Amino acid sequence: MAVVWWAAPVAPADAPGLVAVLDGHERERLTRFRKPADQARYLAAHALVRLVLADAVGAPPAALVFDRTCRCGAQHGKPVLPGGPGFSLTHAGDLVGVAVHPAGAVGLDVERVRELADLDGMLAHVCSARETAADADAFFTLWTRKEALLKAVGTGLSTPMSAITLGPDGVLDWTGDDAPRDPLWVADLHPAPGYRAAVAGSGDRPEITEERGDGLLAAQAL
Predict the structure, then answer these.
(1) Closest Cα to residue 187, out of 89, 99, 102?
(2) Does 76 score more than 70 pLDDT?
């Protein structure tokens, strides 16, 4: 089973207990954000993933040690919990999300639907030659599905979204030298009105549940 947790951002000044569960790398990153909204999203997402993973592996949240080794060898890559389940973080607007999948890698993305000044240009970026999207709502639906897939396979936006063609049941085609060979699944989520979100992974599609994580954050906040 894959579980997706949604929560509202939390200001660091209101939640010293959440700041305390972060490690030194995360606290340093937190202080880099100049905008309070960015700080609140970062804190909520990274504290929530620690709380959820701590329950899964039976360890204190602050004791979790993530491996952030990038392809270049530095510690600024996608975090992985050695020996733990796959997980993915995302945030947009007034939402943060954490997906946890014990069976393997997982990707999660959420976007707030909004008007785009250059919708045609963005559609050209995200759509393959076989795809179309008529409006911003359709664009963000397609974007979140593909972003979730790219996070799940670990390439991120270094792979062009236009290399992926999606159909009603998932991936129809993926071109390029780095195209994954394993079967992939992707599912739409329903985090809140005005948002589009998706979760993805490889192998057989698991049962997917969505939960609210605000209570977990509040219990640890002070």
Answers:
(1) 99
(2) no
CA distance 10 to 83: 29
For residue 111, what are its two tokens? 């976007």
For the record, the structure tokens of 17 come out as 């207990």
Cα-Cα end-to-end distance for the chain: 31
Cα 219 to Cα 56: distance, rounded to the nearest angstrom: 17
Burial class from Cβ neighbours inside 10 Å (0-12, 13-18, 19+) for residue 175 reads: middle
- What's the average model confidence in pLDDT over 5-10? 98
Cα 167 from Cα 177, distance rounded (Å): 21
| Phi-psi region at 96: left, alpha or beta (left = phi > 0; alpha = psi -120 to 50) | beta
Rounded Cα gap, residues 126 and 84, in angstroms? 32
Please state whether the predicted TM-score (pTM) of the whole model is above 0.70: yes
